Amino acid sequence: MAQLLELIQKKTFAFTFAGIAILYLFLFVTLLPHDSIWISDEGNRIAAVRAYAETSQKYLPDPFIGLEQVPGQGLRAYPKPYFVQEKDGQWRSAYSAFFPWTCSFLYKAAGRPGLVLLPVIAGVLSILFAGLIAKTLGLNDRKASLVMLLCAFGTPFLFYSGVFLETTTAAFFATAGIWTVLKAMDSPAEPVPLFCGGLLIGVSSLFREEGFILAFGIFLGIAVTRFSWKRLIVFSAGAWAVILPLMIFNWQDSGSVFGMHSVVYSAIGAVRSNPFFTAKLRDYLMYLTLLCMPVPILNSVPAILLAAGGIFCSWRKTASCAEAISYPLIAGLCLFSSFHNLFGDTKGVFIFQSLLDHLPVIAACIFSIPFLFRNNDRKVRFLAWVAAAGVLIPPAMLNEELIGMFWGGRHFMNIIPVVCVLTVALLSSDRLTRIAKYGICALIFTSVVANAIGYGVLSYKKNFSQELFDALDRQEIKTIVTDVFWLPEELAWLPRDTRIIFMTDADSLERVAALCNANGIMDFHAVLGQYSRVLSNESIARVFQTCRGTPGKLFRKERLKFFTVQIFHIVLPPRDKPLKKD
To answer: pTM of the prediction?
Structure first.
């Protein structure tokens, strides 16, 4: 028995990782449906992957190809700004081309299961490298295993590993790059692994723009904690070996070194409804500290509490009292936020995506700033600088007025594993008080609860979307029209010959009926929304007076009110009985 226990202790890290991998495969591959999506961003990527796989080009199918008498306005192939129409009239995704292009090869080789597995595997490997980073700090197998468990079940990795976005793929290369840089600092052949670390960070930037920020954070960490011109040059050379070609491609593709996504959203956010400094303050609150509070005036409370806690927990004379107050308060607020977001009146749209809301353990790092930035271990200080850059820079580049239905701080995925490592390092330290350690445990519990709820929300939405998809994935349905901006992407897995037309004007349904009549299309299915309406009731009534409209299933979930839609089967009159015109 003693030998068995000794063997288990030696294999703790491996057993923990294997358990996480198996559970992730069960949660995301076995339990979740595969034809549905979380949000339109995911469907956008799927549409782009299928375009590259089937045509080797970025251009998407045009539903108006082969049709005559297409009206000049009121009908569109794809909703803006998520898709861009180029000068030659062809449509493309407004997001980075690299992720769908690379995934197109996986799709051709492994089909839809390959795309389902990709974010899961990338998430699991990111978690593994979080544990390996912990080991480079000298944490033993048990503590490194705790880092992996925290990263797996107490962070948005528990959510985004089940979503077909580039978040976990970018995080994998980012985390692998951080580990490689840390290992390089202890290696006699430092330049080679350091250059490789830079390459990995550069590859991360191919998938998400946060890779640029991470590269700067590592550069800053090296400059402050391990300064050497040689180190800085070698790391930068590795990163720029990937980033420079990416910027050149982006410039040729979109006119911006940051790519089409940046161009589109910068144009949307060019006009802000608030003065610059007020707008930036709101951005920082939105993406760092905003919790789901029942009264708007309470939205600033978490930020004030974090700032005050960071100051007074760092001052020896007030540390004990401040810790006794700050930790339970912030943990309680985060717990309340999670449940209020789930059960409160949020109108069926989950928009709370701050770092604090889904990674409460970040508060422990803020309350322990002196320990992290004055630590005797240069690696801890290095990671603290990397995390600081990854937390403080993204909100300056974001726009809280352009929010959508998101879950968790997806803009911070690259540094979330670092925060997990620092959290466990805090717990392992003899310098922290017992109150602080109990407080950190409370924050870990809160983080696990928040992200368990996140998985539940993901499952809830994907099962709802699967029902809608199944209702429209029928052989007899060839033409679908909608004024719901998110629906074309929601149906990304429908056969590519299914014609989906997006309606943009109040009378667009009448134009659809005329278009179908002119082209011998005798019926179509309209999917109309309750909360994202464009069509007027009068226009709908006129179509139903002329055509035979049969109401279909109403899709409505209490926690997803915003996504309430109903299907209508509309049959045109025989062509010898033309449509009435007012």
So the answer is: 0.93
